[in-house]
Amino acid sequence: MISEKAFRKYINQSKPFQIHMADGREIHVPHGEHLSIQPGGRMFLMWLPDGGFELFNLTMVTSVRSGTKKNGH
Protein backbone atom coordinates (compact mmCIF):
# COMPACT_ATOMS: atom_id res chain seq x y z
CA MET A 1 0.00 0.00 0.00
CA ILE A 2 1.18 3.51 -0.77
CA SER A 3 0.52 6.35 1.65
CA GLU A 4 -1.76 9.24 0.79
CA LYS A 5 1.17 11.63 1.25
CA ALA A 6 3.37 9.72 -1.23
CA PHE A 7 0.47 9.39 -3.69
CA ARG A 8 -0.16 13.14 -3.61
CA LYS A 9 3.40 13.74 -4.85
CA TYR A 10 2.53 11.93 -8.06
CA ILE A 11 -0.73 13.71 -8.70
CA ASN A 12 1.09 17.03 -8.55
CA GLN A 13 3.36 16.17 -11.49
CA SER A 14 2.78 16.75 -15.18
CA LYS A 15 4.47 13.57 -16.47
CA PRO A 16 2.63 10.33 -17.24
CA PHE A 17 2.83 7.53 -14.69
CA GLN A 18 1.40 4.09 -13.96
CA ILE A 19 -0.47 2.93 -10.88
CA HIS A 20 -0.19 -0.78 -10.00
CA MET A 21 -3.15 -2.27 -8.14
CA ALA A 22 -3.27 -5.30 -5.82
CA ASP A 23 -5.55 -7.13 -8.28
CA GLY A 24 -2.89 -6.91 -11.01
CA ARG A 25 -4.33 -4.00 -12.97
CA GLU A 26 -2.00 -1.30 -14.24
CA ILE A 27 -3.61 2.10 -14.66
CA HIS A 28 -1.96 4.56 -17.06
CA VAL A 29 -2.33 8.16 -15.91
CA PRO A 30 -1.46 10.71 -18.63
CA HIS A 31 -1.17 13.64 -16.20
CA GLY A 32 -1.63 14.15 -12.47
CA GLU A 33 -4.61 16.43 -13.09
CA HIS A 34 -6.58 13.31 -14.10
CA LEU A 35 -6.71 12.22 -10.43
CA SER A 36 -8.56 13.51 -7.37
CA ILE A 37 -8.10 12.19 -3.83
CA GLN A 38 -11.06 12.02 -1.46
CA PRO A 39 -10.73 14.12 1.69
CA GLY A 40 -9.47 11.65 4.25
CA GLY A 41 -7.39 9.91 1.59
CA ARG A 42 -9.03 6.50 1.32
CA MET A 43 -10.42 6.72 -2.23
CA PHE A 44 -9.32 8.43 -5.43
CA LEU A 45 -10.96 9.22 -8.75
CA MET A 46 -9.42 8.98 -12.16
CA TRP A 47 -11.13 11.26 -14.67
CA LEU A 48 -11.61 9.54 -18.05
CA PRO A 49 -11.31 11.17 -21.50
CA ASP A 50 -15.06 10.80 -22.14
CA GLY A 51 -15.90 12.90 -19.06
CA GLY A 52 -16.65 9.92 -16.83
CA PHE A 53 -14.59 8.68 -13.93
CA GLU A 54 -13.45 5.51 -12.19
CA LEU A 55 -13.26 5.23 -8.40
CA PHE A 56 -10.39 3.32 -6.73
CA ASN A 57 -9.48 2.39 -3.17
CA LEU A 58 -6.08 3.89 -2.33
CA THR A 59 -5.31 0.98 0.01
CA MET A 60 -5.24 -1.30 -3.08
CA VAL A 61 -2.36 0.63 -4.72
CA THR A 62 0.81 -1.47 -4.51
CA SER A 63 3.16 0.85 -6.38
CA VAL A 64 3.43 3.88 -8.63
CA ARG A 65 5.89 4.04 -11.49
CA SER A 66 6.95 7.28 -13.12
CA GLY A 67 8.03 7.43 -16.74
CA THR A 68 7.20 5.28 -19.73
CA LYS A 69 7.13 1.52 -20.04
CA LYS A 70 10.03 -0.14 -21.89
CA ASN A 71 10.14 -3.66 -23.33
CA GLY A 72 6.72 -4.52 -21.89
CA HIS A 73 7.76 -3.88 -18.25
Topology:
Blueprint: H1 4-11, E1 17-21, E2 26-29, E3 35-37, E4 43-47, E5 53-57, E6 61-66
Antiparallel strand pairs: 1-2, 1-6, 3-4, 4-5
Overview of this protein structure:
The chain is mostly beta strands and 73 residues long. Helices cover 11% and strands 38% of the residues. The chain is built from one helix and six strands. The strands form two sheets. A three-stranded antiparallel sheet has the order 2-1-6, with no helix packed on it. β4 and β5 form a beta hairpin. The longest helix has 8 residues.
Outline:
The protein is mostly beta strands and 73 residues long. The protein has one helix and six strands, in the order αββββββ.
Tell me the total number of β-strands: 6
Terminal Cα span: 20 Å
Characterize the quaternary organization of these chains. Answer: single chain
Structural class: mainly beta
Give the strand content. 35-45%
- Major β-sheet strand ordering: 2-1-6
**Mean of pLDDT:** 87
Per the principal axes of the C-alpha atoms, what is the gross shape?
globular
Tell me the series of helices and strands, N- to C-terminal: HEEEEEE
Low-confidence parts lasting 5 or more residues at pLDDT below 50? none
Q: What's the alpha carbon Rg, rounded to whole Å?
A: 12 Å
Tally of helical runs: 1
Main sheet record:
3 strands, antiparallel
What share of residues is helical?
A: 10-25%
